[in-house]
């Protein structure tokens, strides 16, 4: 199997998955799910899968690679007949990137067949797995997603929704599940709402997806976000909702607005592109720069860069061209080749930046490696000065809820001051958006977001083995506090 890592995403807070579910009698549900996964491809590029049910059975197709690679033979989609479907694109943060971990996960237990698609990370997943194995459970994958199947099977309940209401409170962490039986579709969002999940309406049914851009792709109408702690059930009787957990402190990951979500998606009633433009304006207000032009690192930073340019009164230029056709067959066997990978993926427009004082806008600096290479590229292209503006605060603490950062040692801002980071990446200046500026630009109640990666305050207590090394065992105002991480 080829070892592929997108050279630009390698230095980002990378989201785990995208999930999609459709109940639409009379529609080509497999093909519509295929289109929906295309819209969610940015949320996961390691594997993709679709399962379809017809009221009696569930069949599935999944594999490693992009949606177009897994379903290169689109004739397979036409053979997957049914009236409901669930789809998944994956980026692994828990569990290896191997075919057996691709989703949807199809299982059969005493009450029938079940397909599961999961986005997020269970911080007590290892503990639950050990407990279940001690009780005789045999796991086929290394993902958290299989845990819910074992809990449901061991619940002793014959009705699936009852089994879920009994099992879900045992889970801690971030999760958005879409489950499918031969005749029902179920959407579930964790009590804190850390991962997004939205509900839409089609001509003949309903659709669930991680982002609203998937609704636009298939011509569905957005209805609402699934509430934290809510379970929606869709079947031939229609749509109904139940709570499996009492209301908790809402804590959607704020990186959805900064980086994860597509610009044309809407989150919590806000358009992502317009929020990012406001991030750019606030960033420019906090860090005014004397320069000749503004450029953004494609793709998530382009909206921010346009806001920066407008606020500074500078031209907004296309400083980089992104090569979108490298694909999974691009192999990076050494640090030298990985460095070359950034150049192959992203190319500066020399005629734009040569001899100019350039403001380069990006959404985050996590490890710092990619920022260094991009600044070097601009220097080699003739940029006179390179000023870096980042539309998020410094990332100083690990994420335990489904992002690909698990230790402070991986985070450059946990080890270096801002002047030290500036020198490390070779920039003339470096400015991060403040946490206050971030919240002002998003313009939603600050208590509705998880910002633990910026301030070390966790809504859900991290795993005990990581907790002991860098966190205090005290709780304040409902949040767990990280210690020893300061700029």
Give an account of the 3D structure.
It is a single chain. This protein is α+β, with helices and mostly antiparallel strands. It has two domains: 9-250, Glutamine Phosphoribosylpyrophosphate, subunit 1, domain 1, CATH 3.60.20; 273-443, Rossmann fold. The protein is 29% helix and 26% strand. The chain has a seven-stranded antiparallel sheet. Strands 5-6-7-8-12-13 form a six-stranded antiparallel sheet. A four-stranded parallel sheet has the order 17-20-21-22, with helices on both faces. Strand 15 and strand 16 form a beta hairpin.
Percent helix among the residues?
25-40%
The chain-level structural class is alpha+beta
Most strands sheet: 7 strands, antiparallel
Q: Count every beta strand, where a strand is a DSSP E run of 2 or more residues.
A: 26
Q: Roughly what fraction of the amino acids lie in strands?
A: 25-35%
Low-confidence stretches: 1-5, 328-333, 467-487
**How much is the average pLDDT?**
87
CATH topology of the largest domain: Glutamine Phosphoribosylpyrophosphate, subunit 1, domain 1
Count the helices. How many? 18
Question: In angstroms, what is the radius of gyration?
Answer: 22 Å
What's the end-to-end separation, in Å? 40 Å
Named at the architecture level, the CATH assignment of the largest domain is 4-Layer Sandwich
Read across the widest sheet, the strand sequence of neighbours is 3-2-4-1-10-9-11
The geometry reads as globular
Number of structural domains: 2
CATH homologous superfamily designation of the largest domain: Aminohydrolase, N-terminal nucleophile (Ntn) domain
CATH structural class of the largest domain: Alpha Beta
């Amino acid at each position: 199997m080829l070892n592929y890592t997108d050279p630009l995403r390698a230095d980002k807070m990378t989201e785990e998955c995208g999930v999609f579910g459709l109940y639409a009698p009379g529609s080509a549900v497999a093909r519509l799910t295929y289109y929906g996964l295309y819209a969610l491809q940015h949320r996961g590029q390691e594997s993709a899968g679709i399962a379809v049910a017809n009221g009696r059975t569930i069949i599935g197709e999944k594999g490693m690679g992009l949606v177009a690679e897994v379903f290169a033979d689109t004739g397979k989609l036409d053979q997957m007949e049914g009236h409901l479907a669930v789809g998944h694109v994956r980026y692994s943060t828990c569990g290896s990137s191997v075919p057996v971990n691709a989703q949807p996960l199809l299982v059969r237990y005493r009450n029938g067949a079940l397909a599961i698609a999961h986005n997020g990370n269970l911080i007590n997943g290892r503990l639950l797995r050990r407990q279940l194995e001690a009780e005789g459970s045999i796991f086929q994958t290394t993902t958290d997603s299989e845990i819910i199947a074992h809990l449901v099977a061991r619940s002793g309940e014959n009705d699936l929704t009852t089994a879920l209401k009994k099992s879900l409170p045992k889970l801690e962490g971030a999760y958005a599940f879409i489950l499918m039986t031969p005749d029902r579709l179920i959407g579930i969002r964790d009590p804190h709402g850390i991962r997004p999940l939205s509900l839409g309406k089609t001509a003949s049914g309903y659709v669930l997806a991680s982002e609203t851009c998937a609704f636009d792709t298939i011509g569905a109408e957005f209805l609402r976000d699934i509430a934290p702690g809510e379970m929606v059930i869709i079947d031939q009787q229609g749509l109904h909702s139940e709570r499996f957990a009492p209301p908790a402190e809402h804590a959607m990951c704020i990186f959805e607005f900064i980086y994860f979500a597509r610009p044309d998606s809407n989150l919590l009633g806000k358009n992502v592109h317009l929020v990012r433009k406001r991030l750019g304006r606030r960033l420019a207000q906090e860090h005014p720069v004397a320069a000749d032009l503004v450029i953004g690192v494609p793709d998530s930073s382009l909206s921010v860069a346009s806001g920066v340019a407008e606020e500074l009164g500078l031209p907004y230029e296309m400083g980089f061209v992104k090569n979108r056709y490298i694909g999974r067959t691009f192999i990076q066997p050494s640090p030298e080749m990985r460095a070359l990978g950034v150049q192959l993926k992203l190319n500066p427009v020399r005629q734009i930046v040569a001899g100019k004082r350039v403001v380069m806008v990006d959404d985050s600096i996590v490890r710092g490696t990619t920022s260094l290479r991009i600044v070097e590229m601009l220097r080699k292209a003739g940029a006179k000065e390179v000023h870096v503006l980042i539309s998020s605060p410094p990332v100083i603490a690990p994420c335990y809820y489904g992002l690909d950062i698990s230790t402070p040692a991986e985070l450059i801002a946990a080890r270096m001051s801002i002047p030290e980071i500036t020198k490390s990446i070779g920039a003339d200046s470096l400015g991060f958006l403040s946490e206050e500026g971030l919240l002002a630009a998003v313009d939603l109640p600050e208590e509705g977001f998880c910002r633990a990666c910026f301030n070390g305050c966790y809504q859900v207590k991290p795993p005990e083995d990581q907790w002991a090394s860098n966190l205090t065992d005290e709780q304040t105002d409902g949040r767990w506090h990280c210690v020893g991480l300061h700029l």
